Amino acid sequence: MIRRDFIKTSASLSIAGAVTPGAALSVIASAKAPEDRQFWVDTLVKIAHPVLTNLSQGQLKKNMPVESVKGREQDRRNYTYLEAFGRLMAGMAPWLELGKDATPEGKRRAQYLELAHQSLTMAVDPKSPDFMNFNAGGQPVVDAAFLSHALIRAPKEFLGNIESSTRAHLVKALQSSRAITPYYSNWLLFSAMVEMALLKLGEQWDGMRVDYALKSHQSWYKGDGVYGDGLEFHFDYYNSYVIQPMLLDILQVLSQVQPSQQSLYQTVLKRAQRYAAIQERLISPEGTFPPIGRSLAYRFGAFQLLAQVALQQKLPTDIIPAQVRSALTAVIKRTMTAPNTFDKSNWLTIGFSGHQPSVGETYISTGSLYLCSTGLLPLGLPATDAFWTAPAQDWTAKKAWGGSDFKADHALTGLT
């Protein structure tokens, strides 16, 4: 039954994937709220399908292509599979957390929940052909953290329903990542996020790793809602790819056992709200955004922070949820309908808008690209939420360049 449904889904997605960027803009202009959510779900499923169908059967290493900088293919094979799974799940988890129901979307979600659990079993079982590397080299701590983030984002449906043997294997895998010393940068948050997952799993966790990551990032705050990546400021999207989403969720979990952390959480949230407002203004009327900084192959994952603040219903008061939905829909359509974004088997290819191999850096491979799924976090809001049901709204840049009135922008001061 599941296989037949997947065939139907894949066929419908191949039609959706044939839309050209020019046609996508006309679709954006006429999109209605329910159609937006359907497009987001279809996009998530198209991204997830090859990863989860192969991994759930222990065939990911066999069938997933590994695109990378020339000469780095063999090296990246040591890491790319955990990248694909951990990053995909970090974005997919809130949608899965809604659980199954009798709606077509709910039935679809039930299928992918089953695949996600089967995939987790394959990823952490030492006897599995797809057993993943959690401790050799430096990279695994990064994607152990993204997988940990997924567990935290779906505490009931993903973390809460893990079978006992898989749970034991998962704990050992996460604990083994402690062998990796993170760089003095955003990487400190990866070690901290793993510890938060171990906390949620009921295991001993290392408070020192968490405290060091939090204190370091407070000292790296540069003002106006932006952190440095280490001591220096980097003009890129790492405040959204990693820093602010992980700070928010680490502190939310930590506050449950250390209520005194609630004050720091509120400070971090105010900074995140400011950065989310900046991100919303970066989206052009056409649904494009500046190709600035490293890791552009993560595509619309650049807007994870805006997506997360929307998911958690913490948007600044002057930003209407529907305008965020409309803006992100425009971005997702511009990026995911670009020609050759997917290969013939629907695996993601390296690029920012389409297939652009030069965007791939030495640490980028096929698995890395699945961080784009984090731009879809608001799918964790029910279909009945105003984020999805309210009429489409112009976002700030569209108002500004269309001649409509819009509010002036002001820096966030204080909170140092």
Structure characterization notes:
This protein has 416 residues and is mainly α. It has one domain: Glycosyltransferase (Alpha/alpha barrel). 54% of the residues lie in helices and 1% in strands. It is built from 17 helices and 2 strands. It has helices spanning 2-16, 21-30, 33-55, 60-63, 73-76, 80-97, 104-124, 140-153, 164-176, 187-200, 207-219, 238-257, 262-282, 304-311, 321-336, 386-389, 396-402; strands spanning 221-223, 226-227. It has a two-stranded antiparallel sheet with strand order 1-2. Helix 12 runs antiparallel to helix 13 (262-282). Residues 1-30 have low confidence and may be disordered.
Provide keyphrases for this structure.
single chain; 416 residues; mainly alpha; two-stranded antiparallel ribbon; globular
List the helices and strands and how they pair.
Blueprint: H1 2-16, H2 21-30, H3 33-55, H4 60-63, H5 73-76, H6 80-97, H7 104-124, H8 140-153, H9 164-176, H10 187-200, H11 207-219, E1 221-223, E2 226-227, H12 238-257, H13 262-282, H14 304-311, H15 321-336, H16 386-389, H17 396-402
Helix pairs in contact: 1-3, 2-15, 3-6, 3-7, 3-15, 6-7, 6-8, 8-10, 10-11, 10-12, 12-13, 12-14, 13-14
Cα separation of the termini = 56 Å
> How many helical elements?
17
Radius of gyration of CA atoms, rounded to a whole number? 20 Å
Total domain count:
1
Shape: globular
CATH fold name: Glycosyltransferase
Taken as a percent bin, the fraction of beta residues is: under 5%
Elements, N to C (H/E): HHHHHHHHHHHEEHHHHHH
Mean pLDDT: 93
- The level 1 CATH classification is Mainly Alpha
The CATH architecture term is Alpha/alpha barrel
